[in-house]
Write a structure and sequence with these properties.
By secondary structure, this protein is of the alpha/beta class. Helix content is about 30%, strand content about 10%. Strands 1-2-3 form a three-stranded parallel beta sheet, with helices on both faces.
Length: about 170
Amino acid sequence: MRRVVFASSNHAVGFTPRPLQDAPVGPEALIPVGTPHRPDTFYGLSKCFGEDLAQLYWDQHGLETVSVRIGSCFEEPTSVRALSVWMSPGDCARLFHAALTAENVGHTIVYGSSANTRLWWDLSTARALGYTPQDDSEEYAAELVAEQGELDPDRRDHAFLGGHFVTDPPPWPR
């Protein structure tokens, strides 16, 4: 089997409004994988191109592809925002293993996240690959919230998936 697993990013949809904390809980409140591209930076735009290129290779050449929209992957989440998009290194390994070994993936896009209590996006396509996340960022929540406060939906960098990338993007190499 020939397959490409592409490390995409949540920044491909960074200008998508995030779910509000007091919104209804359940699968219908999660951001679906089918959300249209809304890149927040040139970095996000490059990830959109990679996902579209993966689709092209599946359509034209039958090359299976899985694009993983990674949130943040660190030993521990580093911000209150990251409590929603964090993927532990162990869950990262589990997700990429599933992406490499699942059968008949065609072209699939998945969100890369742990099973976070504050999760913002739908993991159903990742779970369909056989991914079973085991970690949850909530064990870090009390300390991060005490240090940084809850997210403020009136702040632009808190209102969108891309976080500070929508207000203070990293410089593009010149």
